[in-house]
Amino acid sequence: MTPEKPLLLETSGLTKHFRLGGIFSKRILHAVDDVVLTVGEQEIVALVGESGSGKSTIARLIAGVYKPTGGEIFFRGRPLSQMRNRSEVLEYRGRVPMVFQDPYGSLSPMYRVSHGVLRALKLHRPTLDKAARVQVAAELFESVGLAPGAEFLGKYPYELSGGQRQRVGFAQALACNPELILADEPVSMLDVSVRIGILNLMATLRRELRVSFLYITHDIASARYVADRLVVMYAGKIAESGPVEDVLAHPKHPYTQLLLSAVPDPRAPVSLPATSSVAEPPRVVDPGEGCRFRQRCPYAIEECALVTPRLRTLRPEHKAACHVAVSEMEAAIPAGERAATSR
Amino acid sequence: MIATASVLDVRNLSVDYMTSRGAVRAVDSVSLEVAKGEFLGIVGESGCGKSTLLFAIARLLSPPAEIASGSVLFKGRDMVTLGETELRHIRWHDYSVVMQSAMNALNPVMTIGAQLKDAIEAHDNMPAQRVRARSEEVMRLVGIDPLHLKSYPHQLSGGMRQRAMIAMALVFTPELVIMDEPTSALDVVAQRSLMLQIKELQRRIGFAAVFVTHDMSLVSHFSDRLAVMYAGQVVEIGATRMMFEDPKHPYTKGLMQSFPSISGPKQRLVGIAGSPPDLLRPPSGCRFHPRCPSVMTRCLTEEPPLYVRPDALVKCHLYSDDA
Lengths: 343, 323
What we know:
Strand content of chain B: 15-25%
Strand order of the largest sheet of chain B: 6-7-8-3-9-10-12-11
Structural class of chain B: alpha/beta
Number of helices of chain B: 11
Distance between the termini of chain A: 29 Å
Order of helices and strands of chain A: EEEHEEHEHHHHEHEHEEHHHEEH
Oligomer: heterodimer
Order of helices and strands of chain B: EEEHEEHEHHHHEHEHEEHHHEE
CATH class of the largest domain in chain B: Alpha Beta
CATH topology of the largest domain in chain B: Rossmann fold
Radius of gyration of chain B: 21 Å
CATH architecture of the largest domain in chain B: 3-Layer(aba) Sandwich
Shape of chain B: globular
Structural class of chain A: alpha/beta
Shape of chain A: globular
Number of strands of chain A: 12
Distance between the termini of chain B: 33 Å
Radius of gyration of chain A: 22 Å
């Protein structure tokens, strides 16, 4: 986090386990383990990782869809678990709305697209009368690029393209005066030529309406495009986090390095590196101690199987959970000696 | 007659979907050639007709889709006019298809081995022993332990399932493998690994590949040539490297402007305004004109042909000889 941006959201030791199988089953899926995540005001944080890495579970925990198994979520310093009455919960949900992945499934085909926005306004801004709600809804539509807003309000979802539907999703989120929008893969279902428009919309909303985003994606290139900070998830844990450019230029965790080498990049020179790693991410059922990446890691040492690595600060504001990664905070110590002393 | 070097020669192929609101032309007079051992990428957004084109080439279309006109010359024979029995002889032997979603394409209640056996027996008479030997061979070829012949699809990871599909496509060492987004359900690391493996198999076995994808950057390092489709038509076709260095069609340029990169300077991208057209009512003239930044008056009325440039074919009036 940058010191000049006050904290909006903070999680400490956030954990979510799911019991698998029947009620007597003892197998536990560790979807999210001990996640420490912060989002500052007017900040875009990208949460990237493969499917099954727990990134959507984090969004749902923050949105209050799931109750955490352990840990706590603080919004502006107030713990979520302390929210007791309905008005507090409603207030929080208005401040932290969600935009969903599938713009085709998230709008009811039976209602006009104004339905969700008008309902959100009715619920979260009860002082507005009906005419004012329609007025505000039209303005919201225009702020997300659906102009003229009044005309779009009367349309049905089938009349809109995927990109336009996703903009309706953002308008719904904006209806509650949000401070942090949880965007769970908002562009992955869209055509490539319209994706960038939605990413640009996020950047504009941050700049003009001062909202923060938790942008969840598997696409590192798009994360680099909009986000300030990157958080890389692997098997339910944070592998690495830091300022986007710093993580991309100096990836510390071997998983981040693998991920970056796998991203198809037409601008990169033609090269076919031999890193044809066949292994795929594990399902995190009863993982036990140790680094969860160790089976795929080319640098794994004995310690990796015994001790779960903790996030260490290796560069300014840049952390990674790896026993082998070398800190550049104490650059004076040669690499070999450091590895020896850290044990 | 076609040049001896080309395996596949698609000429003016059109495919219609018969809907209650009339015929929708999903593929509109597409011409393509694939040379022996070549890797041709076909890219385009959803609904541009790329999958329909593949299905038409493989003669796998089913109603309401039907081939309206054109020909598909595969090793000199016109596939469009072949009957089912003749097709069965060349299908899988000479060309095979890898579908997009292995989860849906594989039968969940049959082992991988049983499905391989099924595919082999449907197209050839082989003694059981040879079927087993060949199955083990192709599994090893794609890097899966033959032990998994006894596994069910759900016991394999996504990448392994997709590789099992490829193994199935290679049982008869075909000359052409048609692939419909085989990596789209995979994570980047598994995707990269599968692409490398396809390329390696292609180098070893020498089959030609037609690879359909919506992700241009995915094929950037793998395909020899690239065809870009928009609204049912091929709008640009040329060498992959050239296309990335010097895209010509405004749509191709727009696509290039739609992908952020993880390297190089960070620049603001604009994408392409608007969205792909409804093929029931395609725009007049050039189908891209409503979204085109360099639209001219003639684009509204006059459909551009594929203009021949030294390094590419481009369906855009900007490249006409009198422009």
